[in-house]
Each structure stands twice: as C-alpha cells, then as structure tokens.
Amino acid sequence: xxxxxxxxxxxxxxxxxxxxxxxxxxxxxxxxxxxxxxxxxxxxxxxxxxxxxxxxxxxxxxxxxxxxxxxxxxxxxxxxxxxxxxxxxxxxxxxxxxxxxxxxxxxxxxxxxxxxxxxxxxxxxxxxxxxxxxxxxxxxxxxxxxxxxxxxxxxxxxxxxxxxxxxxxxxxxxxxxxxxxxxxxxxxxxxxxxxxxxxxxxxxxxxxxxxxxxxxxxxxxxxxxxxxxxxxxxxxxxxxxxxxxxxxx
Length: 249
Prior knowledge:
Layout: H1 2-7, H2 27-52, H3 56-72, H4 78-119, H5 124-131, H6 139-151, H7 156-159, H8 161-167, H9 172-184, H10 188-248
Helix pairs in contact: 2-3, 3-4, 4-5, 4-10, 6-8, 9-10
C-alpha cells in the first residue's frame, strides 16, 4: 500500500472499482451527440421534405422527437411522426380542394374560348390546338399533353380521356360533347354552348354559396374581437362607477 501511494501521481486520485461507470456523460458531449444526430438526419430530411410538403426542420424535429420519446416513453414515440403525417395529409387535401375549385372556376372561360374558335370555323381538333397554349394553369399543361397524344396517333376520343384524368370530372361534359361530335356528327357548337351555360350556372351557384357562408365566418372574429372591446368600453365603466358609489355610500 505504501509503495503504491508513493508512485501514484499526486494530481490523480486512485480509481475505485466501478466508481466511474455510472457517471453520466458531460453536457458538452451530450450536446455534441445531439448535433451529430440532427446533422445526420438533416440530409435525408432535406431530400424527403419537398416530397412530403413540409419544411426540413419540421421533419428533423419530428424524427428527433420520436427518437427521444422512444427512449423516455416508448408508447409516445410515434406521436411526432403521426402529427407530421396528419399535417401532410391535411395540406394535400387542401391543395387538392384548391386545385379543384380553380378548375371549376376557370372551366366556363375555357369552354367559351373553344366555342368562339368553333364558331369562327375551326374544327374541334383545331380549336383545342389553338386555345390550349393560351389557357392558364393547369389547363395549359393538360391541353399540351392532349396535343402530344393526338400527334402520336391516338384516336380523338381516347386522347380526350387525359382531360378527365388530369383535370377531373368537371371536364367530363366537355369530353362527352367533343366525342359525340367527332363520332356521331352531333352539332359541336350547340353542345359547347350548352356546356358553357351549365358551367357558368354552377360557378354562379358556388359563388352564391360562398357569399352565404361569409356571415358565419365573420361570427368568430366578431365575437372574439369586437365583443370584448364593447364590454371593456361600456360595461366595465358602468360597473366600476356602481361599485365606487356603493363603497362611498
């Protein structure tokens, strides 16, 4: 014992068996490990985030939170990822709904342009080819794809299916009218006029429905913002004056 004490450095205390095994890692090491984890998750998150439609930081935070919860409370580990999944699903539903509303809003104008082209003497194919490049998104891309299919040799009726596949059911009456005109020789101008009238009527009905929903949407800001100010400016002074008169009396 004396020999060991004599040769042991004075600045180092003897290590007791098992004494340092339970000591936690220093704070700077834990912070460094967290930074390394975030850095490793950052590159995959940056590539995956645009596909999911979320910010890379949100995805990294969700994955890191899931890993932390997996160590602390395993049953709660999926919660951050489920939250991000819910946000992604809600955002995609909103994007799909917004795109459909845009298509329904622009569709009557598209039909009117086709009607003008046919009334000027163009065939349905010429009308589609001439109007397509002048249409707003997303009609321009779909009409360009329609032109490529026709140039590739597809039949007119089969190529028109791309309009319904890409733009949805609002364009089905237009496709039906054009196919009937091409296959059966039905008067295309009268059919386009009927489709345009029906599309404008539906757009007007949707606008009226949206206008009727405005008062309901204004109810919450009215109650949450104006009513408290009204109470603070009218009722509070009256109550204060009444209480003050009672206290003085």
